[in-house]
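Deliverable D5.2: sample structural annotation.
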Amino acid sequence: MIFVHYILDTANVDGIKEAIESYPISGVTTNPTIIAKENTDFKKLLTDIKNCIGPDRMLHVQVTSPNAEEMFQEAVALNSFVGENFYVKVPTNAEGLKAMMKIHEAGIKITATAIFTQQQALVAARAGADFVAPYVSRVDNLTRDGVQLVTDIVQMFKLYDIKTKVLAASFKTAEQVHKLALAGCDSVTLNPELLHTLLYNPITNYAVNAFNADWYHVYGDKKILDLLK
């Protein structure tokens, strides 16, 4: 496994547009809380997000029904509405696993979400999940090690040659993201604020300002394109 995807964890269209312009974003994840936060028409919001990210980036949207049959029906409807590169997020509980197997048989891609244990991830993978989404900081809040949880899942999938990818979620620090990159985690989903934190370093800004000052001392306001004319 290799660390491949930075995925944006938001439903705010302006935030998505800004991130896509500046970062190599592979897609967008949402959940019912994130969707509700936007307080707007659901169909229009999905359409706006899809139009923003285009056909080549992933969009993950979670079901809200409590039982397997209704989860399946929602998955079919969402898949038909969203189209390319859609992943239905399904909670990893008994009803969710039952729904996952049926959704997988229908050929719809699945992200198994709300994972707090290694065995939840393994069972979800066996049920047909394309991604499993373990929660890092929420596991930490239970006085357990969220980074170790994801590391265990990555190693377990490698041991059994399981093709399901690991999409780690629920981060508070850039250090958590860094440790999971070293562990071989496939993907992370981050809110825009934490995504910006990954790139920011005051020493980088200091170096760039020094370069600009040295250039200005000799060439003033002239840019490279001006000098090459």
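Annotation notes: The beta strands are 5-9, 25-29, 58-62, 86-91, 110-115, 131-134, 165-168, 187-190. The CA atoms of residues 43 and 81 lie 9 Å apart.
The annotation will be released with the project's public dataset once the embargo ends.
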